[in-house]
Amino acid sequence: MIENLNISNKTNITLxxxxxxxxxxxxxxxxxxxxxxxxxxNLFHLYHRDSGLxxxxxxxxxxxxxxxxxxxxxxxxxxxxxxxxKSIRAGDVECRxxxxxxxxxxxxxxxxxxxxxxxTTN
Length: 122
Fold this sequence. Notes:
Layout: E1 2-3, E2 12-13, E3 24-28, E4 33-34, E5 43-50, E6 53-69, E7 72-87, E8 91-95, E9 99-106, E10 110-114
Parallel strand pairs: 3-5, 4-6, 5-6, 6-7, 7-8, 7-9, 8-10
Antiparallel strand pairs: 1-2
């Protein structure tokens, strides 16, 4: 479900995207996106600019997310190896389930939620 709040009558627009393998997702605009199916490449890149909610179900080895937004990002399911999150504006990032390694770079106001036990290295 994609809801465009800029339209005066608040028309809901639903897009169905059919793909064999999704490796990169680039979003630039005020939009809400919820992934119904599981995304399963080895390496996945997410680019988000502007506001809105993005909820993705992923089973990947590596995830790179570049969040230049004031929106909210929810990442659910499993990343086998490494997650790199870079956020340069206010917003919230939520990671659920197994992630072995997470690298977070924040610049601005926002929150990061991580639900698994945190492993630290020296």
